Amino acid sequence: MIMTRWTRAIVAGFFACAALSSSAYAQKIKVGYWTSGVSLGFGSTLEQMKFLEKQGLEVEWIKFGDVNAPTRAIVSNAIDVAFGASTAGALSIAADGVPVKIFLATQLAEVQFVVPEASPIKSLAELRGKKVGMSPPGSATHSLAIALLEGNYGLKPADYTTVPGNEPRLAQFLMQGEVQAAALRGTTIAQMNEVKLRVLGNYIDEWKKLTKSSSAPVIGVGMVHSEYLAKNPEAVVKFVIGMKEATDWGARNTARVAEILQKTANLPADDAQAYAKMWSATYVTSFEAADIAMLKKMAEIFKQAGTLKNNVPDSAFAADPYIKAKSRFPK
């Protein structure tokens, strides 16, 4: 069939409109994350491998050097979504009535209380009067430590001195004897091959002891501004699918994750490999009923420990994005 000039113009116009429509369909989303701790590895991999972009999202990546900054950015509408946001911070602002929704559990509390092997401290009960290194106030790691030490050992915050810092700083404090104990993530401990440590306890076991349950607490969650979710529900569903694919891919491709960490975080090869091997013990993409119940229990315990002032309403938890995404997860 021979096209006339008019026919060719119509066809060209059709494809131009289709291209424009496809471009317009790519939903914009501003994603923020903390470039330290366990957020670093997942964020670098998610960004480099373009798991969200492959879902049709047009992503603007916004990175923060402070663990609490993504939470503040959600409040000010500077970002639409934060992953690995501090669970304690997310619960706190939700309890204060800020229009946000918690819609995903993303980082397990794979944290351990450790001391140097030569330390005379043999149990967590012996931390009274000691200096204990932990993440800064406002982080879930900090709030959980306060709750676990008080709930299981009767140690109130006034009974020991907390020394805040990011993971590398806390490891340094411990090695130099500036703190007698520290709450460190598994990824950090895995990189401290040159130091012999004794584990006094870990968050997951201590949580199960405190709650008399089999659930595992999380220190990082996915949080979205309520306005963005209301206007872009499908974008948040795609975000969850991308997160799930990244979680599964990282578990299967630890060597590639290590390469990404060497490039983006300037980690030595051994440290990057140790970090990557902790992937499955650290990251999760889930928001089942049990996850929501666990978060509600965390809120209750944080309030009892004094790190959370108000009650978190049920409306702060949005399960729909995960439920819809789950039916589209790769088999």
Give the class-level CATH name of the largest domain.
Answer: Alpha Beta
Q: Give, in spatial order, the strands making up the sheet with the most strands.
A: 2-1-3-10-4-11
Total helices: the number is: 15
Please provide the ordered H/E string of secondary-structure elements: HEHEHEHEEEHEHEHEHEHHHHHEHH
Structural class, from helix and strand content?
alpha/beta
Features:
331 residues, alpha/beta, D-Maltodextrin-Binding Protein, domain 2, 5-stranded mixed β-sheet, 15 helices, 11 strands
Structure summarized in a few sentences:
The protein is of the alpha/beta class and 331 residues long. The chain has 15 helices and eleven strands.
Question: Any overview of this molecule?
Answer:
- This protein starts with a helix and ends in a 5-residue tail after the last helix.
- Helix 2 packs across helix 10.
- 49% of the residues lie in helices and 21% in strands.
- The protein contains 15 helices and eleven strands.
- The strands form two sheets. The protein has a six-stranded mixed beta sheet, with helices on both faces.
- It has two domains: 192 residues, D-Maltodextrin-Binding Protein, domain 2 (3-Layer(aba) Sandwich), CATH 3.40.190; 101 residues, D-Maltodextrin-Binding Protein, domain 2.
- About 5% of the residues have low confidence.
- It is of the alpha/beta class and 331 residues long.
